């Protein structure tokens, strides 16, 4: 039997509180919404579900609160086939994301809560898990010290690292130098360029552009990988779907451009249902979709 790709994700676990409305409220304005949902979320957990549904063996490293949200999220992730043996409950609340969805777009406010308990020391205690991975995915919804420690452990063991730099913050040149792929959206790319010499990012940068696809930035050129056209219902989690698909494809041996194409297909399919995780497709669904678009 073919061995499953071993994907380790160090990251955030949230409960998403989603309001669907015909228009986004202006400052001071009160509107009636059309629908409310509570959905499992957090960039780390979203990427974990994306990779697990594709068939990877996913280890998620993170924290939840001691509240009901924490219990619900752990049960949900286990049901999705994510290994949560390295997710620890801590005193206090689970992280939440308040998301307003209107016309396929969204705005988000995150309260980190238990995600702040993912410290460098916590990550160090998971050294063996990271060291035995095929690939590691990180985001910036956990403390930067934890990201730096995870990258350090991965590089000591020659493991490929993907950093999804969201929400964007200033990163050290040393950290960037140790990362294999950085996957900002267009807004995050602008801020990255303000803080970094472009040479530091050459060969690492994969910019996600929503319905326009992604761009691979290599020395002297930009390689555009177009998106798949699809009727989007909810774009929440599409970037996370791309990152999960990219990681899975890279471990499976896809060349970078083909891995990005695969990630685009995963992202496209993820937008066809409400909720960041509910639309994540299986490998079979992705294969069928890509074959139908050839």
Q: Which spans of ≥5 residues are poorly predicted at pLDDT below 50?
A: none
Measure the end-to-end span. 29 Å
What coarse outline follows from CA principal-axis ratios?
Answer: globular
How do the SSEs run, as a string of H and E? EEEHEHEEEHHEHEHEHHEEEHHH
Total helix count?
11
Largest sheet: 6 strands, parallel
Share of helical residues: 25-40%
Identify the CATH architecture. 3-Layer(aba) Sandwich
Give me the Rg, rounded: 18 Å
> What share of residues are in beta strands?
25-35%
Structural summary, described in words:
The chain has 294 residues and is an alpha/beta fold. The chain has a single domain (6-292), classed as UDP-N-acetylmuramoyl-L-alanine:D-glutamate ligase (3-Layer(aba) Sandwich), CATH 3.40.1190. α10 crosses α11 (283-292). Strands 5-4-1-8-9-10 form a six-stranded parallel β-sheet, sandwiched between helices. The chain contains eleven helices and 13 strands.
Give a short overview.
The protein is of the alpha/beta class and 294 residues long.
Based on the model shown, name its key terms.
alpha/beta; four-stranded mixed beta sheet; single chain; 294 residues; six-stranded parallel beta sheet; UDP-N-acetylmuramoyl-L-alanine:D-glutamate ligase
Task: Summarize the SSE layout with pairings.
Layout: E1 6-10, E2 14-20, E3 35-41, H1 43-54, E4 57-65, H2 68-79, E5 83-90, E6 95-102, E7 105-111, H3 120-124, H4 127-131, E8 135-139, H5 144-156, E9 160-164, H6 173-178, E10 181-182, H7 186-195, H8 198-201, E11 205-208, E12 214-218, E13 221-225, H9 238-251, H10 256-270, H11 283-292
Parallel strand pairs: 1-4, 1-8, 2-6, 4-5, 8-9, 9-10
Antiparallel strand pairs: 2-3, 6-7, 11-12, 12-13
Helix pairs in contact: 1-9, 9-10, 10-11
């Amino acid at each position: 039997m073919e061995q499953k790709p071993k994907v380790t994700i160090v990251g955030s676990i949230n409960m998403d509180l989603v309001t669907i409305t015909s228009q986004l409220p202006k400052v001071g304005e009160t509107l009636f919404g059309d629908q409310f949902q509570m959905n499992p979320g957090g960039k780390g957990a979203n990427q974990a579900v994306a990779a697990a549904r594709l068939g990877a063996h996913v280890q998620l490293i993170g924290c939840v609160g001691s509240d009901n949200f924490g219990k619900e999220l752990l049960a949900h992730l286990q049901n999705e086939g994510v290994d949560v043996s390295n997710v620890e409950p801590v005193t206090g609340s689970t992280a939440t994301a308040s998301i307003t969805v209107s016309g396929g777009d969204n705005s988000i406010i995150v309260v980190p809560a238990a995600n702040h308990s993912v410290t460098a020391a916590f990550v160090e205690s998971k050294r063996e898990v990271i060291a035995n991975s095929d690939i590691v995915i990180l985001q910036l919804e956990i403390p930067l010290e934890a990201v730096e420690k995870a990258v350090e452990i991965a590089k000591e063991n020659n493991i490929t690292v993907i950093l999804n730099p969201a929400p964007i913050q200033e990163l050290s040149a040393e950290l960037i130098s140790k990362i294999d792929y950085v996957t900002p959206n267009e807004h995050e790319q602008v801020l990255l360029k303000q803080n970094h010499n472009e040479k530091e990012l050459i060969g690492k940068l994969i910019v996600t552009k929503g319905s326009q696809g992604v761009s691979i930035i290599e020395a002297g050129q930009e390689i555009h990988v177009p998106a798949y056209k699809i009727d989007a219902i909810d774009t929440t989690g599409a970037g996370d779907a791309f990152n999960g698909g990219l990681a899975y494809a890279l471990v499976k041996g896809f060349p970078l451009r083909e891995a990005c194409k695969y990630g685009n297909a995963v992202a496209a399919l993820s937008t066809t249902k409400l909720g960041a995780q509910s639309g994540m497709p299986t490998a079979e669904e992705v294969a069928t979709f890509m074959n139908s678009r050839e």
